[in-house]
Design brief:
- It is a single chain.
- With 575 residues, the protein is an alpha+beta fold.
- It contains 21 helices and 17 strands.
- Strands 1, 2, 3, 4, 5, 6, 9, 14 and 15 form a nine-stranded mixed sheet that branches. Strands 7-8 form a two-stranded antiparallel sheet. A two-stranded antiparallel ribbon has the order 10-11.
- Helix 7 runs parallel beside helix 13, helix 9 packs antiparallel against helix 10 and helix 12 packs across helix 17.
- The mean pLDDT is 96.
Length: 575
């Protein structure tokens, strides 16, 4: 198969009331998506963009109309295509509405946060949320069914707890008044935490994802493993989500919120009750870091919960143990949706039953087999990044990951560390200002010998603790003499060995410079910039609360930066 790749951006539509200085999420008409898809439907495979529905009625997903390929000149197409997607949506919106490149609307779940506004119905809605009305969910039945089934299977509303950021005037302990809400909300809200109670708080956020078609199943499995180790580093670099439900949190990234928002595990599966009705004790939500490596098992240092029947079936069919284990682990989860007309299928001709389980195992990487009767090959999806404010910043992150894949394969790099350390890294990446203040486990020597790839090298050696150490993001990305060569210097080594025209090399160098400066703190993450914007706002009372005026001004500033009307030196400097 040929190298193909592409990105995915989820846009948020915001309504501005400039007279009253307020901003709300605009609930869009389903006809808007149909209009955006007209060119794609009229010219299949030739439209420059493609549009798909997303969880929120205020969200739309956009990708390039066709994948990018192996030509280095394609790197110059990423940013213009991202700008085009944003323009297409903005051109179809009303004069007071804007397409926003934000991960999370700051007042998501606050009173009247949507336009038009609706009251939550905590006794009858799909989520039973005290804060998030069903009208904010995409009207396609799949999305409300997911919401209802996650809650029903769990046996309670989802419980999302995010530590509050303690500013000088934030009460200590911070105790939100939830006395007017339902008993479950009153019982569950915790001191010093921002409480949320619906799938929409997680799936109503946006992100940046990149999908690659590998040249073979072996290459796909290797990339899955190596990129899984890089996921926490990119999450820290991309941090852009410090505010939830109108409060400043002590976290910078969306990840744990989504983990909690789709956690459908029962009390038995969570270990709160003895196993009686359920089959498995499951250690984490169905949204989370990858659970096992696929190309080598040498660093899988945790027990993997798996569906033994599925594992045995795959082994009997000739599938190797590592891949069988991965699939069997996916199948410890129940399907979350199943429509009657899709129950009876010939599984030799259709993979919908598999995709029904696969697509609701939301891990930091996704390994995607070829669909039946398709020319599509083996793919891996890179999923950790928060969304950035500008097309340039998003394109830079995409370019960084794409070139890293080529570098890993060409230089036979080996990033393997114990999977437990990778999972710990993902937790650290979400901490406030993690890009500068956290250390991450990373392998010290990444070069293999005798042309081995990483999986072969891992399988032929015995893992030891001295193979890796804790490093800063700056050391991992930029390198430090005598400690680590740095991902960007390694990528520069790869690029020196290939043909690339001067104009493309300038595009790549500019993107690398942006990543370098964000890693070492010369440029701020979006999360840090947002915190400082709020702290300097005259209407902010240093109490961790984002009121309507602060929200309006913050989003107006975000839109000016995203549209190119205003250049933010803190975020892009002179890059």
């Amino acid at each position: 198969d040929n190298l193909l790749w592409g990105d995915e951006i989820e846009f948020t539509v915001v309504h501005f009331d400039h007279e009253n200085k307020t901003a709300q999420l605009q609930l869009t008409d389903p006809a808007l998506l149909k209009r955006l898809q007209e060119e794609e439907n009229a010219n299949p495979g030739r439209s420059p963009t493609a549009w798909r529905p997303e969880y929120g009625s205020f969200m739309l997903e956009a990708t390039p109309g066709a994948p990018f390929g192996g030509a280095t000149t394609d790197f110059k197409l990423i940013e213009p295509n991202m700008k085009l997607r944003r323009k297409e949506l903005n051109d179809m919106l009303g004069p007071s509405d804007r397409c926003m490149n934000i991960t999370c609307f700051p007042r998501l779940g606050c009173p009247t946060f949507t336009n038009p506004s609706f009251e939550p119905k905590p006794k009858t809605s799909a989520s039973l949320s005290a804060f998030f009305p069903d009208e904010a969910i995409n009207p396609h039945p799949r999305f409300s069914t997911l919401t209802r089934n996650i809650r029903t299977r769990r046996g309670s509303k989802v419980e999302i707890q995010v530590p509050i950021y303690k500013d000088v005037n934030t009460p200590s302990p911070f105790l939100e008044d939830v006395s007017a809400h339902d008993e479950e909300t009153q019982r569950t809200a915790k001191a010093d935490h921002i409480y949320m109670d619906a799938m929409g708080f997680g799936m109503g956020m946006s992100c940046l994802q990149v999908t690659f078609q590998a040249c073979s199943i072996a290459e796909g499995r290797l990339l899955y493993d190596q990129l899984a180790i890089v996921c926490p580093i990119v999450l820290a670099l991309s941090a852009s989500t410090p505010i939830y439900r109108g409060y400043i949190s002590d976290r910078d990234c969306r990840w744990s919120v989504i983990e909690q928002s789709v956690d459908d595990r029962t009390q038995e599966e969570r270990g709160l009750k003895p196993l009686v009705s359920d089959r498995y004790r499951i250690p984490k939500s169905r949204y989370g870091p990858v659970s096992c490596y696929l190309a080598s098992g040498a660093y899988n240092d945790q027990e993997i919960v798996q569906n033994q029947s599925v594992f045995d079936t795959l082994k009997d069919a000739g599938i190797d143990s590592l891949l069988a284990q991965h699939i069997a682990h996916l199948f410890i989860r129940d399907p979350l949706t199943l429509f009657g007309e899709q129950i009876h299928q010939d599984v030799r001709e259709d993979s919908n039953h598999f995709e029904n389980v696969q697509s609701t195992n939301w891990q930091s990487m996704r390994f995607k087999p070829p669909p039946p009767k398709s020319t599509i090959g083996w793919r891996v999806e890179f999923r950790p990044a928060d969304l950035q404010l500008t097309p340039f910043q998003n394109a830079a992150l995409v370019m960084f990951v794409v070139i890293l894949t080529r570098t890993i394969l060409s230089l036979n790099l080996n990033f393997y560390i114990p999977i437990s350390k990778m999972q710990e890294n993902l937790k650290r990446a979400q901490e406030r200002n993690a890009v500068l203040e956290q250390k991450f486990y990373f392998r010290k020597s990444v070069h293999t010998v005798d042309g081995q790839n990483a999986a072969t090298a891992a399988d032929s050696a015995t893992p030891t603790d001295d193979e890796y150490e804790e490093m800063s993001v700056a050391t991992i990305v930029n390198g430090k003499e005598g400690v680590f060569p740095g991902l960007i210097p390694l990528m520069d080594d790869y690029l020196r060995g290939i043909d690339m025209d001067v104009d493309t090399r300038c595009t790549v160098s500019r993107s690398f410079e942006f990543i370098r400066k964000r890693a070492n703190g010369e440029l701020k993450t979006t999360a840090r910039w947002m915190r400082e914007f709020v702290a300097a706002h005259p209407d902010y009372k240093k109490d961790s609360v984002i009121n309507e005026r602060v929200n309006y001004d913050l989003l107006m500033a975000c839109d000016r930066i995203s549209s190119g009307e205003e250049r933010c030196e803190d975020l892009e400097g002179s890059v």
